[in-house]
Amino acid sequence: MIRKFHNLIILAGLLFMLAACSERAEDSRPVVSVSILPQQYMVQRIAGDNFRVNVLVPPGAGPETYEPTPGQMRDVANSLLYFSVGYIDFERTIFHNMMRGNDGPLMVDTSEGMDMIASEIVDHGDHVHLYGVDPHIWLSVPGARIQAGNMTRALIGIDPENSDFYLDNYEEFAGELDSLHESLTEMFSGSKRKTFLVFHPALGYFARDYGLEQVSVEQDGKSPTAANMRKIVDLARQEGISDIFIQMEFERENAKAVARELGGNVIEINPLSADWLGAIEDLANKLHEVLNK
């Protein structure tokens, strides 16, 4: 009886796997590729279910250190569009590889039109070079509106028959973003403090949007030296900061050490969530609470 039950479980598992494979094989929708999960959310808000969205960076991984697999590169090559964030390192590799051939997706830089945060800006008159660019534009609500606009134009370009559908969805999404931005502006306008502490400097655009300032433990993608750690702790104390924000994919030892020194907490945020809107609201609520302790 036990063996029979065991065999039934194996059979059920095989049937489930076959059904899943069949479902994927029957998904004949055209494909668009994106770098990170928040972009998937934006594409689906605009395009609905018209496309299958191929996401390169999987849950739990960080885009700063991620390297696409050969299989993912093939998936990108077979896409109609590739929406890049704009300034993530691995995206340059994809652009270089895709541009070498005539086939491949239309490459769309969704940061086009954004006022980028950069460590150095060199203006040559007819063009500008940016160095040390902060890539985290999706954590700006107005920035997400710009990204969504760039996506909408590209989608209409490859599928003009559904242009009204895409435009209507974009207008609805843009209205929600405008309302959210207005609410967050009001939320943070009366905060007791304006400075907060993060492990990884991902919240620069969010901070700029609402008159805040982030202080980062990580410097240039590296953990701080003991001397820099002391400076950060001293600055945090001067500003009345006790808590530190960290993304879920980062190790916590240095963050815990800082929190112990300050007598505060390590607060987890998820800027790379597939639920972009939920992640922004969660971030805003946690940040507002910390700034008003």
Structure commentary:
The protein has two domains: 28-182, Nitrogenase molybdenum iron protein domain (Rossmann fold); 190-291, Rossmann fold, CATH 3.40.50.1980. Helices cover 49% and strands 15% of the residues. It is built from ten helices and ten strands. The strands form three sheets. The chain has a four-stranded parallel β-sheet with strand order 2-1-3-4, with helices on both faces. Helix 2 packs across helix 5.
Q: How can the largest sheet be summarized?
A: 4 strands, parallel
Note the beta-strand portion: 15-25%
**DSSP, total strands:** 10
The CATH fourth-level homologous superfamily of the largest domain: Nitrogenase molybdenum iron protein domain
CATH class membership of the largest domain: Alpha Beta
Number of domains: 2
Helices and strands, in N-to-C order? Answer: HEHEHEHEEEHHEHEHEHEH
Biggest sheet: strand arrangement: 2-1-3-4
Tally the helices: 10
Class of secondary structure makeup: alpha/beta
Which shape, going by the Cα principal axes? globular
Taking pLDDT < 50 over at least 5 consecutive residues as the criterion, the unreliable ranges are: 1-6, 122-130
| Helicity level | 40-55%
CATH architecture of the largest domain: 3-Layer(aba) Sandwich
CATH fold annotation of the largest domain: Rossmann fold
Q: Termini separation (Å)? A: 62 Å
The value of Rg in angstroms is 22 Å
Mean pLDDT: 87
